[in-house]
Amino acid sequence: MTIDQLYKIYRQYPSVQTDTRKLKTGDLFFALKGPNFNGNEFALAALAAGSAYAVVDDAALAGTDSRIIVVDDVLTALQQLAKHHRQQFNIPFIAITGSNGKTTTKELVYTVLSAGYKTYTTQGNLNNHIGIPLTILSVKDDAEIAVIEMGANHLREIASYCEYTLPTHGIITNCGKAHLEGFGSIEGVRKGKGELYDYLRANNGTVFVMWDYDYLQTMSKGIATVVKYGTTNTTDIQGAIQQSEPFLTVSIVKGAHIPVIQTQLVGAYNLPNVLVAVTAGRYFNVPDEKIKKAIEHYTPSNSRSQLIEKDGNKFILDAYNANPTSMRAAIENFANIQAYNKVLMLGGMAELGAESLQEHEGIINLIKQHPWKAVVLVGGDFLKLDHPFIKMANSAETAAWFKAQSFTDTYFLIKGSRSMQMEKVLSS
């Protein structure tokens, strides 16, 4: 079956699903394969559950049901279908990548642009080779702007996403020490994230650039349109922090008439995320008052810079992910908070390759520079190093320790890589 033929079926049944547990009647089921599963085995069950068609790549299923569609490779077909759908639109597609802050940036940009346009965006963290095609295929005919998040942990990944996302605008939040196991080095991170700039440079695109970062200035050279944001007057949008405790308050001092934005975000490190949302809003002519209102009404979720008050204590829950760059920023921000009793509960950082022990030791040395009521280091390479702090094997053990302490009037920072599931410290 050709992509044109498959697209005609998709237009009749535009809800795409890859998980039979989430199927709804009329869905178009794509039988993807992974290391531990083979979606082809569930194709007939998907049809029995109400799926309109099942797209498979197991030739043995041909003819077993008239609603079985056999393709050479299901994942490739999904991505090609997404590209075909993308090509039906002549609207801005804004791609966002970076080592830290990309999901918060995506949510803020989406919230601001939704104040002026019918905008579609990545749901949750569907930012990989499967999630991005699914996001594109969720964009309806009434779309005026799409905001697509792109995650990556190795070279050529962002370049491959651009082949079917066809972005017109791009944002690289930053390039930090993340996924070093896949990228090899900080230079590899910049090259990998820079594939978004490479695509936009070659296709007359527009980028929104955090001008405080010299490396992004260099990386963005040669791109047709560069819109600058940051904390200096050399930018199109200039902002400053008014206060960062407990929540970040930002003033826009150039480029927009927004003297105060009182966010619900914790941490000064969220300033660039707020500024790029303002910048995108202004670029697409969203009125200043709507930009301000949209950002002020945004509440973080999914364990990203959340401030939680519980049992007489305050918790900064920033446990969705961690790498050396984000961990340092979170610790330094927490150290600056005016509170008498402060406790760190930090999980190990994943995917750092040969530099992992060194990076964990660097975090330990940073922790030693500040006074704390208690420090709990959990799992991963924290367990392999000598340090004077409390060691825990996992988040469940940490939760049991925490429950036994009877803390009151205490401020906590809870952070770690996704695999550590540090949010369980509070949910247990």
Automatic annotation (TrEMBL):
Keywords carried by this UniProt record: ATP-binding, Cell cycle, Cell division, Cell shape, Cell wall biogenesis/degradation, Cytoplasm, Ligase, Nucleotide-binding, Peptidoglycan synthesis
Domain of life, per lineage: Bacteria
Family, as annotated: Belongs to the MurCDEF family. MurF subfamily.
Protein residues bound to ATP: 98-104
Name of protein: UDP-N-acetylmuramoyl-tripeptide--D-alanyl-D-alanine ligase
NCBIfam families: murF (TIGR01143)
GO cellular component, one term: cytoplasm
Pathway linked to the protein: Cell wall biogenesis; peptidoglycan biosynthesis
Subcellular localization(s) per the UniProt record: Cytoplasm
Catalytic activity, reaction form: D-alanyl-D-alanine + UDP-N-acetyl-alpha-D-muramoyl-L-alanyl-gamma-D-glutamyl-meso-2,6-diaminopimelate + ATP = UDP-N-acetyl-alpha-D-muramoyl-L-alanyl-gamma-D-glutamyl-meso-2,6-diaminopimeloyl-D-alanyl-D-alanine + ADP + phosphate + H(+)
UniProt EC number: 6.3.2.10
Gene of this entry: murF
Domain Mur ligase C-terminal: 304-381
Entry-linked HAMAP family: MurF
